[in-house]
Amino acid sequence: MSGTILVVTASYDQAVETVLPILDEMGEKYFRLNTDRAPIESWTTNVIRSGSLGGEISNGERTIDAKEIKSCWHRRSDKTKTADSMHPGYAKFVKGETHFALWSFYTTLPNAIWVNHPLIGARLLEGNKLYQMRAALDSGILVPDTIVSSSPEELIAFSEEHGGRVAVKVMRANILAREGSEELMFVYTNTLSTEDLIARKDAIRISSIMAQEYIPKEFELRVTVVGNEIFACSIDSQNSEVAKEDWRRYDFDNVAHERFELPEDVKHKLLNMMRGMGLVYGAIDLIVTPNGKYIFLEVNPSGQWGWIEGLTGMKISESIARILADPTT
What we know:
Blueprint: E1 4-9, H1 20-25, E2 29-34, E3 43-49, E4 52-58, E5 63-65, E6 69-74, H2 88-107, E7 113-115, H3 118-125, H4 129-138, E8 146-149, H5 152-161, E9 165-169, E10 175-177, E11 184-186, E12 190-193, H6 194-199, H7 201-204, E13 209-213, E14 219-226, E15 229-235, E16 257-259, H8 264-277, E17 281-288, E18 294-300, H9 306-312, H10 316-325
Parallel strand pairs: 1-2, 1-6, 6-7
Antiparallel strand pairs: 3-4, 4-5, 8-13, 9-12, 9-13, 10-11, 14-15, 14-17, 15-16, 17-18
């Protein structure tokens, strides 16, 4: 399929480096847009003239007509760049205008097929776990009982309803700075008792909290979906005290990562959920319980796959390259 692939990412994103060499080997043309370098190093132009909308993207050395773009891989967007000498007030304004110029360019591409469209992946689904869980339920997939509230009374009652122990997690993965320190920390999933919630009643009132019934785990799954291809990896998180509550506290010496064959009905349900949400790519997290139930936690529309590929040998990057090269398949 002729045309150019637009890769929307950031200059520091190493994940795309596993896919771009494969596109080179395939003889595919692509344009890498590092959003954190726009509009200084790359820029877009949209023009409405005589009732017709046109556009192009350029980096000073190469210019691509919007009509040439056959597929667009929206890996990630970052804050745009301004001159270091610019006044902070002006810089904020310029970054906002650049952001919306890029957004206008993305949403008016005439022929591109997206992996994934930012209206869905970035605007609708990222951090929207409740919407994701509703989509999972609509496809017949089990999800944990869940509450999102800033009412300590509601959260305490929910915990009591579920045996006095809940899993507390953030709505969206984020990095926090410790008070009075430049040290950064990642917020992981943790289990809290009813007593823990009671002791933190005042803190709960100032921010919404997401809590779920605690689901016993036999093991966990990371399922990467690319179009109709499914790459499932089992994660033996229960073999590690470090990773037991959240496998993102990586403990590779004790937590095995292995290829896993999903039951056909689970595959069907996951693909149906992905189509229902309008996703071409997604990294899905599941729990498998000791009695063999598959429980959906979330899907990340731009989730990482490199470490799974490295540990299991599954050809996820090749699958991404193929679907970008021929998005009609």
